[in-house]
Write a structure and sequence with these properties.
mainly beta; Laminin; 1 helix
Length: about 60
């Protein structure tokens, strides 16, 4: 089973308390979410992966010969 999100270690900085997603880069087809004070990248609907690397569910299910 593939993980849909990737937890990221929070680095100490000015924005960490108010916005743990500040300064984090998720995949273009993902967004950063604040989960219990930790930045977590989550692939958008229709995409699978760990939030850092997201691929289309359609392409994952399609077999090319």
């Amino acid at each position: 089973m593939r993980e849909k999100y990737h937890a990221m270690n929070a680095l100490p900085n000015y924005f960490a308390e108010s916005d743990p997603c500040h300064g984090y880069s998720c995949h273009a087809y993902a967004n950063c979410q604040n989960r219990e004070g930790h930045a977590v990248c989550v692939c958008n609907d229709g995409y699978v992966g760990n939030g850092i690397d997201c691929k289309s569910e359609f392409l994952q299910q399609t077999k090319f010969f």
